[in-house]
């Protein structure tokens, strides 16, 4: 249930950032080593400014008109509960990649 919420939040953000006409969201899996794996979500959307990227995990920080600012905060907590890491890389105007790194065994 928690993983569904995690993936749903990330996909909703990617969907909101991409255009209906040319939007592309790629989901993939990388085996990093013998003990961890990475699940990544990459979009070709509007990207996130460097200033906003610094604050994006803060509770109640949002750039959306109807956002609560809790989506990525919740994502961070879910990943931490699974002993993982959440990495967000973005270039303004080029898109964003969110990678969830999780241990293979809990």
Describe this structure in words.
This protein is 31% helix and 29% strand. The protein has 106 residues and is an alpha+beta fold. A hairpin with a 3-residue loop joins strand 3 (85-91) and strand 4. The longest helix has 16 residues, at 2-17.
What's the shape? globular
Strand content: 25-35%
* Total number of beta strands: 4
Number of distinct helices: 3
- Helical content (DSSP H or I, runs of 4+): 25-40%
- The overall average pLDDT, rounded, is 93
Distance between the termini: 16 Å
Strand order of the largest sheet: 1-2-4-3
Order of helices and strands: HEEHHEE
Structural class: alpha+beta
Radius of gyration, in Å, reads 14 Å
What characterizes the major β-sheet? Answer: 4 strands, antiparallel
Low-confidence stretches: none
Spell out the blueprint of helices and strands.
Layout: H1 2-17, E1 25-31, E2 36-43, H2 50-55, H3 71-81, E3 85-91, E4 95-103
Outline of the structure:
The protein has 106 residues and is of the alpha+beta class. It has helices at 2-17, 50-55, 71-81; strands spanning 25-31, 36-43, 85-91, 95-103.
How would you describe this structure in keywords?
106 residues, alpha+beta, 4 strands
């Amino acid at each position: 249930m928690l993983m569904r919420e995690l993936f749903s939040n990330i996909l909703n953000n990617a969907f909101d950032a991409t255009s209906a006409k040319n939007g592309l969201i790629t989901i993939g899996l990388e085996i990093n080593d013998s003990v961890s794996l990475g699940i990544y979500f990459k979009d070709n959307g509007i990207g996130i400014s460097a200033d906003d990227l610094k604050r994006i995990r803060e509770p109640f920080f949002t750039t959306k008109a109807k956002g609560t600012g809790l989506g990525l905060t919740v994502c961070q907590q879910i990943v931490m509960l699974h002993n993982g890491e959440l990495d967000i890389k973005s270039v303004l105007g080029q898109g964003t990649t969110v990678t969830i790194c999780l241990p293979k065994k809990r």
